[in-house]
Design a protein that fits this description.
Layout: E1 15-21, H1 28-43, H2 49-52, E2 56-62, E3 77-84, H3 90-107, E4 114-121, E5 126-128, E6 131-133, H4 135-148
Parallel strand pairs: 1-2, 3-4
Antiparallel strand pairs: 1-3, 5-6
Helix pairs in contact: 1-3
Organism: Winogradskya humida
Protein name: 4-oxalocrotonate tautomerase
InterPro entries: Tautomerase/MIF_sf
Amino acid sequence: MASRTRRPSVAPMPMIDVYATEGTFPDVKKLAQDLATAVMTIEQVPPIAMFRKNTAAFVHTLPADSISNVDGDSDYVRVQVLTNAGALDREKQLAVVAELTRIVAEAGGDAQRTWVLLTEAPEGGWGLWGHAHTNAELVAAARAELAKG
Protein backbone atom coordinates (compact mmCIF):
# COMPACT_ATOMS: atom_id res chain seq x y z
CA MET A 1 0.00 0.00 0.00
CA ALA A 2 2.66 2.55 0.98
CA SER A 3 4.62 2.08 -2.23
CA ARG A 4 2.42 4.58 -4.05
CA THR A 5 3.75 8.11 -4.08
CA ARG A 6 0.95 10.60 -4.04
CA ARG A 7 0.51 14.19 -3.12
CA PRO A 8 -0.97 14.32 0.36
CA SER A 9 -4.30 16.07 0.86
CA VAL A 10 -4.12 15.45 4.60
CA ALA A 11 -0.76 14.99 6.28
CA PRO A 12 -1.23 12.26 8.86
CA MET A 13 1.59 11.50 11.28
CA PRO A 14 -0.04 9.52 14.03
CA MET A 15 1.13 9.10 17.55
CA ILE A 16 0.27 5.66 18.87
CA ASP A 17 0.13 4.93 22.60
CA VAL A 18 -0.13 1.37 23.90
CA TYR A 19 -0.95 0.64 27.53
CA ALA A 20 -0.53 -2.88 28.92
CA THR A 21 0.67 -4.64 32.04
CA GLU A 22 4.34 -5.46 32.46
CA GLY A 23 5.37 -8.63 30.66
CA THR A 24 2.52 -8.61 28.13
CA PHE A 25 4.92 -8.09 25.22
CA PRO A 26 8.29 -9.84 25.04
CA ASP A 27 9.62 -7.48 22.34
CA VAL A 28 8.30 -3.98 23.01
CA LYS A 29 10.53 -2.27 20.41
CA LYS A 30 9.29 -4.58 17.63
CA LEU A 31 5.68 -3.99 18.68
CA ALA A 32 6.16 -0.22 18.54
CA GLN A 33 7.82 -0.35 15.12
CA ASP A 34 5.21 -2.77 13.72
CA LEU A 35 2.34 -0.55 14.89
CA ALA A 36 3.88 2.63 13.45
CA THR A 37 4.63 0.88 10.15
CA ALA A 38 1.10 -0.51 9.93
CA VAL A 39 -0.58 2.85 10.41
CA MET A 40 1.70 4.59 7.91
CA THR A 41 1.02 1.80 5.39
CA ILE A 42 -2.75 2.00 5.85
CA GLU A 43 -2.67 5.78 5.49
CA GLN A 44 -0.95 5.32 2.11
CA VAL A 45 1.32 8.33 2.55
CA PRO A 46 4.59 8.68 0.68
CA PRO A 47 7.59 7.31 2.60
CA ILE A 48 9.21 10.72 3.07
CA ALA A 49 11.22 11.55 6.20
CA MET A 50 8.50 13.86 7.51
CA PHE A 51 6.14 10.89 7.84
CA ARG A 52 8.71 8.19 8.71
CA LYS A 53 10.29 10.26 11.49
CA ASN A 54 6.99 11.48 12.95
CA THR A 55 4.84 8.34 12.89
CA ALA A 56 5.67 6.72 16.21
CA ALA A 57 4.36 4.32 18.82
CA PHE A 58 4.95 4.53 22.56
CA VAL A 59 4.48 1.40 24.66
CA HIS A 60 3.60 2.14 28.28
CA THR A 61 3.99 -0.82 30.63
CA LEU A 62 2.06 -0.66 33.87
CA PRO A 63 2.01 -2.76 37.03
CA ALA A 64 -0.69 -5.46 36.89
CA ASP A 65 -2.61 -3.82 39.72
CA SER A 66 -2.97 -0.53 37.79
CA ILE A 67 -5.52 -1.91 35.29
CA SER A 68 -8.84 -3.48 36.19
CA ASN A 69 -12.32 -4.09 34.88
CA VAL A 70 -15.34 -4.55 37.16
CA ASP A 71 -14.42 -8.21 37.74
CA GLY A 72 -10.78 -7.43 38.58
CA ASP A 73 -9.25 -8.64 35.29
CA SER A 74 -6.10 -6.76 34.28
CA ASP A 75 -5.08 -8.39 31.01
CA TYR A 76 -6.32 -5.64 28.70
CA VAL A 77 -4.38 -3.69 26.10
CA ARG A 78 -5.39 -0.15 25.22
CA VAL A 79 -4.13 1.33 21.96
CA GLN A 80 -4.82 4.99 21.25
CA VAL A 81 -4.08 6.40 17.82
CA LEU A 82 -3.95 10.19 17.65
CA THR A 83 -4.09 11.76 14.19
CA ASN A 84 -4.76 15.22 12.91
CA ALA A 85 -8.39 15.92 12.01
CA GLY A 86 -9.65 14.06 8.94
CA ALA A 87 -6.59 11.86 8.49
CA LEU A 88 -8.51 8.57 8.47
CA ASP A 89 -11.61 8.01 6.35
CA ARG A 90 -14.00 5.21 7.37
CA GLU A 91 -12.18 2.54 5.34
CA LYS A 92 -8.88 3.46 6.98
CA GLN A 93 -10.46 3.57 10.45
CA LEU A 94 -11.67 -0.01 10.02
CA ALA A 95 -8.30 -1.11 8.64
CA VAL A 96 -6.31 0.54 11.45
CA VAL A 97 -8.43 -1.05 14.19
CA ALA A 98 -8.29 -4.50 12.59
CA GLU A 99 -4.56 -4.42 11.84
CA LEU A 100 -3.44 -2.97 15.17
CA THR A 101 -5.57 -5.53 17.02
CA ARG A 102 -3.94 -8.29 14.96
CA ILE A 103 -0.43 -6.98 15.65
CA VAL A 104 -1.10 -6.65 19.40
CA ALA A 105 -2.49 -10.19 19.58
CA GLU A 106 0.46 -11.59 17.62
CA ALA A 107 2.90 -9.75 19.91
CA GLY A 108 1.45 -11.28 23.06
CA GLY A 109 -1.83 -9.54 23.80
CA ASP A 110 -5.36 -10.85 23.40
CA ALA A 111 -7.48 -9.70 20.46
CA GLN A 112 -10.65 -10.02 22.57
CA ARG A 113 -9.18 -7.75 25.25
CA THR A 114 -7.59 -5.13 23.01
CA TRP A 115 -9.22 -1.74 22.72
CA VAL A 116 -8.20 0.54 19.85
CA LEU A 117 -9.29 4.15 20.21
CA LEU A 118 -9.08 6.55 17.29
CA THR A 119 -8.70 10.18 18.34
CA GLU A 120 -8.30 13.33 16.25
CA ALA A 121 -6.42 16.45 17.27
CA PRO A 122 -8.43 19.58 16.50
CA GLU A 123 -7.51 21.81 13.55
CA GLY A 124 -4.40 23.70 14.57
CA GLY A 125 -3.70 21.29 17.41
CA TRP A 126 -0.91 19.22 15.88
CA GLY A 127 2.36 20.40 17.41
CA LEU A 128 5.46 19.58 15.44
CA TRP A 129 8.82 21.35 15.20
CA GLY A 130 7.72 23.82 17.88
CA HIS A 131 4.62 25.00 15.98
CA ALA A 132 0.89 24.20 16.31
CA HIS A 133 0.13 23.25 12.69
CA THR A 134 -3.12 23.40 10.80
CA ASN A 135 -3.82 20.60 8.31
CA ALA A 136 -3.04 23.00 5.46
CA GLU A 137 0.37 23.77 6.98
CA LEU A 138 1.15 20.07 7.37
CA VAL A 139 0.12 19.36 3.79
CA ALA A 140 2.27 22.25 2.55
CA ALA A 141 5.28 20.93 4.50
CA ALA A 142 4.78 17.44 3.07
CA ARG A 143 4.46 18.77 -0.48
CA ALA A 144 7.60 20.85 -0.04
CA GLU A 145 9.52 17.75 1.08
CA LEU A 146 8.15 15.76 -1.88
CA ALA A 147 9.21 18.53 -4.27
CA LYS A 148 12.80 18.31 -3.01
CA GLY A 149 12.58 14.74 -4.09
